[in-house]
Request: fold
Amino acid sequence: MIALDKRPNPSALYATLSPFIALALTLIAGVILFLAIGKSPAAALYAYFIEPLTEGWSLHELAVKATPLILIGAGLCIAFLSGNWNIGAEGQLVMGAIAGALVPVLMPEFRNILTLPLMLCLGMLGGALWASVPGLLKAKFGTSEILTSLMLVYVAQLFLDWLVRGPWRDPAGYNFPQTVRFSPEATMPAIDYASGRAHWGFGIAIIVALALWYMLARTRRGFSLRVTGQSPRAARFGGFSPGRTTMFAFLLSGALAGLAGIIEVSGAIGQLRPTISPGYGFTAIIVAFLGRLNPAGAILAGLVLALSYLGGEAAQITLGVSDKIARVFQGMILFFVLGCDTLINYRIRLKGASVSGTAAVTPAATVGPEQKRDIDAAAGAVPEAGRHA
Amino acid sequence: MLSVEGLTKRFGTLVANDAVDLVITPGEIHALLGENGAGKSTFVKMLFGSLRPDAGIIRWEGQPVSIHTPAEARALGIGMVFQHFSLFEALTAGENIALAFEGGGTGHGAIGQKAREVSETYGLPIDPDALVGELSVGERQRIEIVRCLMQDPKLIILDEPTSVLTPQEAEKLFETLERLKGEGRSVLYISHRLDEVRRLCDRATVLRHGKVVTHCTPSEETASSLAAMMVGEEVEGFSRTASSNHASARAVLRLNGLSLPAASPFAVPLKNVDLTVPAGMVIGIAGVAGNGQGELFEAVSGEVLQNDAGMVAIDGTDAGQMDIEGRRALGAAFVPEERLGHGAAPAMPLTDNLFLSRHGTDSGSFTGTLGNILKGKLKTVAAHISATMDVRKGAPDPHASALSGGNLQKFLVGRELDREPLLIVVNQPTWGVDAGAAARIRGALAEVARRGGAVLAISQDLDELFEIADAIAVMHHGRMSKPIPIEDATREKIGLLMGGADPDHTELDEVQI
Reply:
C-alpha cells in the first residue's frame, strides 16, 4: 500500500519552482507523446509552442485567448484560496455572456457610449447570480459546491443553446442558431485594428488581476479570504464569518467569469452562438493552480494556457494531428502541477503488508490536517471531529 | 530491564535528544521530567519504535535491540498509553480493544473474557458494551491501559496520564501503578506534575533542551528543586495579592441560564449555566476535560451564538446575539485552548496573527482608508508585545507554527492584554507551556484583575486555579456549580464536584460568594 506522509518542512524553493518543473515535465511527456504517434518531436514542439509566438497576428490571438483565462483564473485564485471550490466558472461565463447580451439583443436601438459599460455590468451580474446558487447552498446547507457549481454549467449551456435556437435567434440569420450581430457600440474595441483582433478586454484582464493581487496581499478583505482558506477555525475566531466569505468568493469569481463571458462575445465573437467558449472556465482552473493561486501569477499562467490553445490549432494545421492535443497538454500541465505540489508537501512511503497481531489503531492520526481540509472541502462542511478522539 | 546509552535524535539543526542515558530496573517507576519541548516525546517515540534514533544504543534485558515499529516494541514487551487516546468514539469499549488484536486469531469472546480479567485484576473497571463516545476521559484512559496490559508488557510508558483526571481518578491510577510495580513490571512515567512524581516515582531523569540534566531520587528533592532542574533557573513563584473587596464590584460578564444544545453527538450541551464575573476578580472554571469547557468558551466568545440575547451579558449589554467581533467591541478579549488553528493561523506570521483578533477593535490603527493593512504598525505593536511578554523567537516575524507552545501562548495572551481589555476569557491558559512562560502568563492575567478588569480562566490544572483564582466554579456534564471563594475551596471539595457530586445537594450549596 502507498501512504502519503506530510513533510514537516516543505521546501519553499521547490514550491516556487513547482510550476516550472511541471511545464518541463509536460514538455518531456509531449516529446514521448509525439514520438509515440510517429511525429518528429522537435518539429511538433516548435509548431506547438514557438511558432505561434513568431507572428504578429498570432500574438493578437494569444491576447484574445488569454483574456478570459486571466479574468476567470484570477477570480478562481480568490475562490480556491479561501477554500471555495468553484468548478462552474464555465457556466458563469455563459450566463454572464447571456446577461450582457440582453442589451444588444433586446435593445438593439440603445446605442451610445453607455452601451458597452452597461453590458459589462450586466455580464458581471449574470455570472455573480449564477455563482450565488452554489455559494448560497454551501453557506446555508453545507452542500458540496464542487457538485452544484459543476452541474449548473450544463444548465447554463443548454439555456444558451435554447436561446440562440429559439427566442433570440436572428430572424435575418438564414436560420443559423445565432443572435443578431452586435452593433459597433456594443463591441469591445480592438487595441490596434491594423495588426490583429486583440481588444481592450486584455487590458481589463491585466488590471483586474493586479487589483485582485493587491486586495489579496494587502487588504483586510484579502486577509479574511486567506485566513479562511488556511485555518477556518482561526478565521471564525478573528470574526470572519465563513458563510460571508463563501458568498464573497463565489460572487467575485462568478462576476469575473461573467465579465470574461461578455467580453468574449462582445470582443472576439460579436454575437451569441450555441458555443461561445472552448472550455475557458475549466481551463482557468489550471490557470489558477499554475499561477500558484496568485492573481498576478494567473496573468503568466493565462498566457501559457492560451498558448496551449493556439499551439493546438497550429499543430492541427502543420502536423495534421487532432486539435484535442491541446486538451491533452492542458491536462498534463494540471496533472504535473498538482503532482509536484503533492510531492512537495508529502512524502511517499510504501507500507508493507499490514502489521499482524497488534497493529496500532490510530483513527485520529490517519488523516493529516491538509488532507482533512481537502476532504472537508470536497465533502462540504464536515463537522469538526471531536478533539479528544 | 531497559538501559539506554547515548541516544541521539536530530531534526535538521535541532538536536531533540542529545546523548540521553537512562536505566530502568524491574519493578521501578521511573519519571521522565522536562519542560515542554525538552525532548521527552522524542525519547519515548524512539523507545516505542515511532522514531529512529540517529545514534545510541537501546538495550532490552541486556541485549542491544533496534526497534523499528510500535509492533516490534510491543513484541518485546513495551506498552504505551498515549496522552491523546486512539479510540474510535462510535465503537464500544470492547470493540476498541478487539480492534487492536484483529488478525491475531483470537475471537471476540476470548478477548472480552481477557479484558474482563485484566480490568478486575488491576482495579480498572470498564464496561465493554459502553460506547466510547459516551465515556469520560478517565474511563477512556482505563480502556487504553487495559488494552496495553492485555499484551502483558514488562515496561509500560505513560504520557502525562493524570492531565485529564480528577484528583480522585488520579488516586485510583496510582494504586494501579503500585500494583503493576508489585508484579515486577516497570513504568516510565512522563509528567510535569512534580508533587505526583515525588510521591510515586522511585527515580527520575530530568531532560532539558534534549540533554539529561541529572538522574535523581524524587522523594529526596523538593518540588521547587525539581522545577529548577527542569527550567535551569529558579522559577519565580507567582505570588497572590489579596483580592480587593469585591462586594460592590460591577458584573463585567454575566451568564444567565446559558443553555446550548450539543452541536454534534460527542459534544457536551450546556445546561442552564449561571455565572457572574465581577470587575477586579479572577474566576476559575475547573473540570475534567470534555465536560463542556470548550463549548462554554465558544458560547461566551460568540463563535457560537445564543438563542436569547440575555444569556450572555458583557459589561451590562446583552451580547447573546452578537458575534465575536461585537463582543470584542464591548471590551472582551479571548484566548482559546488550541493555539494553532484556533487562536492563531499556523502558516501566517505573527503580524498577521496580531491582525487576526485586532482588526476590528483597532481598525483605525491597523488599516488605512482602503482597508489596506498597515504592516509597519503591526510590526511595531507585535514587537512591543514580544518585548512585554518576553516572547522568544528565531526571526523578527516568524510563522506562528515556528514558535514553541509557551512562546506562542505568551504572544497570544499578550496580543489581547495589549488592548487593555475589560474582560479576558481564557481556556487552558498554560496548557503544555513551560514553567517560566506559565508564571508570566498567570502574572499577566492577575494584573488584568488588579487593574480592575475581569478574568474568566477555564483550566484543568487545579494548581493553577488555586494560584490565580479568587473563586472557583466547576463544570460537570455541561452544568456549572456555584463559585466557591478561594478561602473556602479545598482540593477535596473541588475534586468531588469535578467527579460529579451534585452541587445542589451538598453543603457547598450554602457557600456564597
About this structure: Confidence is low (pLDDT under 50) at residues 353-389 of chain A. Chain A is about 65% helix and 5% strand.
